[in-house]
Amino acid sequence: MLSNTAISKLKADKPCVYVLLSLLDGNRYIGSTNNIIRRIKEHSNGKVISTKRRRPLKLYAYQVFNDLATARLLEGKYKKSRGAFDKAIRDKKLIIIR
């Protein structure tokens, strides 16, 4: 799911919004967490109901914040508005994983 290069760029202890891409159906999942590495492992191991049947998953993008409240706020905004999500990508606020 994640290469060593991608993992080394992540800040595990920082709040963030993350975007997972289902390699099964092509749909995306947007979430927020205060530990992205732990959360991605939970998704990969099938411990998250929303993504359990959509595995395998790939980390597509993430955005780091200073506090979890802001991350949760932006998570909701990205889920509600495709335009806000696309703008965050265009403005390079969301870091795309290649």
From TrEMBL:
<dbReference type="InterPro" id="IPR035901">
    <property type="entry name" value="GIY-YIG_endonuc_sf"/>
</dbReference>
<dbReference type="InterPro" id="IPR000305">
    <property type="entry name" value="GIY-YIG_endonuc"/>
</dbReference>
<protein>
    <recommendedName>
        <fullName>GIY-YIG domain-containing protein</fullName>
    </recommendedName>
</protein>
<dbReference type="Pfam" id="PF01541">
    <property type="entry name" value="GIY-YIG"/>
</dbReference>
<feature type="domain" description="GIY-YIG">
    <location>
        <begin position="13"/>
        <end position="95"/>
    </location>
</feature>
